[in-house]
Amino acid sequence: MTQQPRICDYGDSTYRQDFWEGQGREYEDRVERQVLAQLLPESGKRLIEIGAGFGRITNEYHMYEQVVLLDYSLEQLQYARQQLGDDGYLYIAADAYNMPFQSGVFDGATMIRVIHHFENVPAVMGQIGDILAPQAKFILEFANKRNLKAMIRQVLGRNGWDPYAQDPVEFVELNFNFHPDYMQEQVNQIGFELHQLIPVSWFRSAFLKRTIPTGILSSFDGMLQKTGLTYSPSIFLDLELTTQSQDQVDLGTNELTDILKCPQSGTTLQRDADVAISESGVRWGIYDGVYDFRNPLD
Ligand SMILES: C[S@@+](CC[C@H](N)C(=O)[O-])C[C@H]1O[C@@H](n2cnc3c(N)ncnc32)[C@H](O)[C@@H]1O
Predict the structure, then answer these.
(1) Can you give the pLDDT at residue 189?
(2) In CATH, which superfamily holds the domain spanning 15-255?
(3) Is 76 near ligand 1, meaning CB less than 6 Å away?
(4) Domain extents for the chain?
(5) How far is 181 from 230, CA to CA, in rounded Å?
(6) CB within 10 Å: which end of the chain, N or C, has fewer?
(7) Ligand 1: distance of its center to the CA of 211 in Å?
(8) Could you tell me the pLDDT band of residue 275, with boundaries at 50, 70 and 90?
(9) Is there an atom of ligand 1 within 6 Å of 8 CB?
(10) CA-CA distances (angstroms) from residue 73 to 21, 65, 94, 294?
(11) pTM of the predicted model, to two decimals?
(12) Are 173 and 9 in contact (CB under 8 A)?
């Protein structure tokens, strides 16, 4: 892929109100938190939540000393900051295809309900591999194209695409479902070792969610998660970066000199009021405490 990949820009979308709040998705939210609680370590230094959105699940990462929320939408991050504050959090509006971080500065990363918006998976995986330290944990959730519903629709001839084919399917513009083997191949190529695969969200049916209490449905989901069967609509991968090519780096503490870099010039930054300036003079805005690395200031 030579062209710049397209970005699914949430901007000031009403994703929070239209998809989550009062929209009958307590079960999906509950089971995702269940899995995160199982996979997250007891403690950690710095985690990046890639595609954090409005910070729906950010409070699950409390065991890390610092959490960096990265999203393309400045507005979603501004909302997250209003809810979470600044203590232990850093807010970065940027494109995950071009992340403004120095190499190896995170010992943890998550990407939940996000990679389905990426048409160039190898490119974003390469970025993630670069910003993680050796032995870092990466929890990746992806939408599984070979799920039970798609398999039944395939038998009935109502799918329009093959759930067994390895290539990603773009079922709506910039919304992709992935084959489990394809995704494992992608993470392997970056040097991630798979520790666990957890199939999640087996009961995404409006009828079941209406008739069975969320707690009971989530317990059943928990049982199916243990099977490791890759036919659920959502799959979590528990990964560790095993590549030996990076030198062990000190994760540092100063956001300007130790963590961030200018995504255009690659140099470190200095801050002047609400502007971050690279050594080569590229200027980036900071709005309500959110760094904006999407487009430089004039
Ligand atoms: C479905 S939302 C998920 C938000 C959050 N992870 C959650 O589970 O509630 C997808 C998020 O990915 C972000 N996103 C999509 N493409 C991106 C890109 N290229 N760089 C950074 N963020 C991106 C969107 O702005 C949006 O907030």
Answers:
(1) 96
(2) Vaccinia Virus protein VP39 (3.40.50.150)
(3) yes
(4) 15-255
(5) 10
(6) C
(7) 31
(8) very high
(9) yes
(10) 19, 24, 8, 9
(11) 0.96
(12) no
Contact call for residues 123 and 95 (beta carbons, < 8 A): no
Place of tokens 């805005």: 285
pLDDT tens digits for 81-117? Answer: 999 999 999 999 999 999 999 999 999 999 999 999 9
Ligand 1 near 234 CB (within 6 A): no
Q: Nearest-CA neighbor of 11 among 261, 277, 297, 292?
A: 292
